[in-house]
């Protein structure tokens, strides 16, 4: 969705190593925003993004307008947008806190795939739930595109690279690496799932600049929360969402997500 950073460029660089031609799409998709204020404040830096893509030698940039992507949505209210069967993948974590978000993501990504017709598409694991849902959509609909997961790219202090990081105040940016630190320490902390979740909540909420939305340990395939430490499942993911508490502003908080293999 633009506001490109080194994480995005790493996707491009890998795609260039593995393909003859690479297309980068830039589109701030209104269908996936529950909050209009969030949509309005989302960083838009198209000119700078294009320069970064030129430097990385991207072959094609596709940056459509909302009208080009959704020409039949009069008034742009999107009330009649199509829905897809995403099983239980969109009923947990981000899906609970942002209802309709992933339906909006799928509508846009499906359109982009139909327009560009790629053989491969590269997505970062930072948005792990989104990655799982896109893989499900491609398989269910039968789109002929291979989804390539790419590891999360992090800043030197561990913070997952995100376009939203540009919205952080200096003090928020200084405290934000605490999210990744909590994930890593949780992996080495003994206890039941319930105890781990309470421990993670205490770690995040004890920071005066943070408020935990959720911390879940999930099946990496189904995304369903694990409740029993004795579960035979080996592929697990710890996922977290945190709101930065902004007491001196009426602009609203920045929301950050992250995850690691568990």
What's the N-to-C terminus distance?
28 Å
Report the sheet-strand fraction: 15-25%
Shape: globular
Number of strand elements: 7
Question: What Rg do the Cα atoms give?
Answer: 19 Å
The name of the CATH superfamily of the largest domain reads HUPs
CATH fold category name of the largest domain: Rossmann fold
**Going across the major beta sheet, what is the strand order?**
5-6-7
Question: What is the architecture of the largest domain at the second tier of CATH?
Answer: 3-Layer(aba) Sandwich
What does this structure look like?
This protein is of the alpha/beta class and 262 residues long. It has 2 domains: 145 residues, HUPs (Rossmann fold); 99 residues, Pantoate--beta-alanine Ligase, Chain: A,domain 2, CATH 3.30.1300.10. Helix content is 37%, strand content 16%. The chain contains 10 helices and 7 strands. The strands form 3 sheets. The protein has a 3-stranded antiparallel sheet with strand order 5-6-7. It has a two-stranded parallel ribbon with strand order 1-2. Strands 3-4 form a two-stranded parallel sheet. α6 packs across α7 and α9 packs antiparallel against α10. The chain is globular. The two termini are 28 Å apart. The model has no long low-confidence stretch (mean pLDDT 91).
């Amino acid at each position: 969705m633009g506001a490109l950073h080194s994480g995005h460029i790493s996707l491009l660089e890998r795609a260039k190593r593995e393909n003859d031609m690479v297309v980068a799409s830039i589109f701030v998709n209104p269908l996936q925003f529950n909050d209009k204020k969030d949509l309005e404040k989302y960083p838009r830096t198209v000119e700078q993004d294009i320069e970064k893509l030129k430097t990385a030698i991207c072959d094609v940039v596709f940056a459509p307008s909302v009208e080009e992507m959704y020409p039949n949505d009069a008034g742009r209210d999107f009330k009649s947008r199509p829905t897809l069967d995403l099983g239980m993948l969109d009923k947990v974590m981000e899906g609970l806190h942002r209802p309709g978000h992933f339906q909006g993501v799928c509508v846009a990504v499906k359109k982009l795939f139909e327009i560009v017709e790629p053989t491969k598409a590269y997505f970062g694991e930072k948005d792990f739930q989104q990655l799982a849902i896109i893989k499900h959509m491609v398989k269910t609909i039968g789109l002929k595109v291979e989804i390539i997961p790419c590891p999360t790219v992090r800043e030197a202090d561990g913070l997952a690279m995100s376009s939203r990081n540009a919205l952080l105040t200096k003090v928020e940016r200084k405290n934000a690496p605490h999210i990744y630190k909590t994930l890593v320490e949780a992996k080495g902390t003994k206890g039941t799932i319930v105890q781990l979740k309470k421990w993670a909540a205490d770690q995040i909420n004890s920071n005066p600049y943070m408020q935990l939305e959720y911390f879940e340990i999930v099946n990496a395939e189904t995304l369903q929360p694990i409740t029993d430490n004795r579960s035979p499942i080996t592929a697990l993911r710890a996922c977290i969402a945190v709101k930065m508490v902004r007491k001196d502003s009426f602009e609203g908080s920045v929301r950050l997500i992250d995850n690691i293999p568990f």
